[in-house]
Design brief:
Helix 4 runs parallel beside helix 8. The protein contains twelve helices and no strands. 65% of the residues lie in helices and 0% in strands. It has one domain: Urease accessory protein UreF (Orthogonal Bundle). It is mainly alpha-helical and 242 residues long.
Amino acid sequence: MLMTTNEPVGAGGLTEGEAAALYRLMTWLSPAFPVGGFSYSSGLEWAVEAGDITDTTTLADWLDAMLGDGSGFCDATFLVHAYRAAEADETGALNEIAELAAAFVPSRERQLETTSQGRAFIDISRAAWDAEGLDAMVAACSTPLVYPVAVGVVAAQHGVPLAPTLHAFLHALVSNWISAASRLIPLGQTDSQRVLVRLEAAVAATATRALNAALDDLGSATFRADLASLRHETQYTRLFRS
């Protein structure tokens, strides 16, 4: 485990374990970590073409709904439960969570998006950031690990605390959505940052809900976003894979 007590305090007041955890989170959830997130828009490409998203205000409103009432909350909840199952070495529970998470994806392209990123995250973690017990956890799952489940399992096996893992995951998720939108609307860099600032409270609120949510609390009410993902499959001109 990375986080232990009575560790020497290094630069900036971080213990060695805290510094290592922060370093790994910044690496794993950076746009430079090669999971291919830049290839996907989670249906935003169709929403822009349909005129639902035209500027910073409509983008922030759309993403706020996706965070609190759609895939953001669901993915965050799956990450939390996968992390806790892996941390407790409950392979049976982890398998059930992985199966439910895979079944919860509403469209073929979103399935491709989350399973491809999950597979890449696991493969790169094994190759460069392996941890004892990670192979056993992955092998215990009868279905490919979707992205939030993969992040939860890897973080748990490395002893990276759950709360910062969840916040970093949601920040990366929102950042990738905004990055896609900046190329589609398009937005400038400053406007993109304004959207990120506006969603700060929504990210924190979603994380808090997910940390306290049971699997029975899962649900989505973002029907327009789900339709966007479905209709993107037949969109004539596309920059993104979802």
